[in-house]
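pinging the channel bc i need a second pair of eyes. not urgent but kinda urgent?? the chain im working w is below, pasted from the shared doc
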Amino acid sequence: MKTALLIALFLVILACVRAGRKGGIYQYVNKATGVPAYIGTTNDLNRRYNEHAQRPFANSNTHQYLAAEMNGAAQQRYRAEAAMIQSCKANGGCAYNKNNGGGGPR
């Protein structure tokens, strides 16, 4: 798996971090393999974290939650999410992502 590419994409997103914003991109990474199991975007990271609490990938014993607050328009988050998911799926990860992201609110 080309985790270096996924890490690079996430670091680009981290560069967009600004204090005081709740929206951003997040991922749950398998602690044993280092492979992302799920990537998403939201306008409220705390709310979305709580919504995922019962999902298998949200188990803190097996997966690490990483989030980056991201300033800017929602469309920027959607594009970044879609690029991350596409790369992740191409490398065998993101088993819990049902779609390719970037579609905005559902």
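so Residues 17-21 have pLDDT under 50 and may be disordered. and The beta strands are 24-30, 36-42, 63-69. — does that match what u expected or am i reading it wrong
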